[in-house]
Amino acid sequence: MDKRLVSLHADGSGDVLEATLDKLGEDQLKKFLSDAIRTSVTDPVQLLKAAFAGSPIGKRNGLERRQLLFRHALDCLNDEGRSDKVCGDIVGVLLLEVDSFGVDQLAELCDYFLGKIKAGDVANARCLELFPKVLSTVQWMSNVPVSGDCDGGTMSGVAYKSHVINKICSCKWSSSIVIHLTNMFRDVSMTNDELRFVLEKIVRMFENIELSELPPLIYQLLLLSNKGHKRLALDGLCSFFCKLDRQCAEEQGTDEALQPAMTTELRPTQGTVILHITFAAKQDQELGREFIKTLKSCQQRSSSAVLSPFVLALALSLARIRRFEEPVFEILIAAITRSYRDAERRKASRWAYETTPPVSNIASLLMEVCQLSSWDHVTQGLVQLGFMLMDANAPKTSGFTA
Description:
The protein is mainly α. The chain has 21 helices and 2 strands.
């Protein structure tokens, strides 16, 4: 039967095709599509095109069948193990069909995607590729019906799109779908406020992600931040890794057995993240400039905010980019000099010791970065920083003496 549907479509027998589809039950049609996608005995793309062609928009049963086909195709896309090429071709067909849906059908599709996200039921990122198109289409509609808390009400398309983004960011995300959602939001048109809301949600999710999964997530975050709010993304990831650095230092002081295990996993992750940021800064110098602003802001608040292994290593890596070399080293030398002065004050005054926060141990910090042999991209900047520190603190002489 599935091959007959494809044949009727190829022959242009629209009326016969429609009549044949009308005789099929929903379960039969879904089984035909599932089997075609799973086995490819019948071309699933041609079967899907035939089914849509035999489901006219102007007829109620045709429109209902289109919704059924669309949702079931999404369910099939969400299954793991599907051929990437087949999935890509099906996505292409579904993208073309989105424009044919009315406001009610688009709202139902948004609810479908929201349900999948809330349940953490996104095994294959391919199914989310259609969500940006649905949101983009619905934002131009008027009087969009809203379900859930606003049951019975309507919104403008723009307000509805903002409502959906808010619902996504307000629900709990499964750690397994964070990367998929971050990638999806790159294709969603958002206002500055919506983008900030999304970025803040992603940054908060760092705490729930395995260290090994952070580099690909941060890579997607950097791509998303190309839309705006680069400073927010940089501040968030610097704060997160500084917190982990402090935890490593605390564990080293309390339990020698725990610290090496955490550091062994953390340092490679940080090294990969630094490479991602450095590469992104080479492609988009605005990102590097925003990091300089972050570095200056941290240095003005407290030198210890700059002098953590991650921030120091990231700064040294970015210093390899000629445009950022001078400002980075100026900030680092100022922070290190300030840290030494604060340490001297704490030693000289009991009042200062009791009322001011502890300062970074510069020697230990530099030695820790030196021992990170896997961070080859940091070594050049570290050597250069050492020479600049010696020059900055060399004794001043008035000239040669006889």
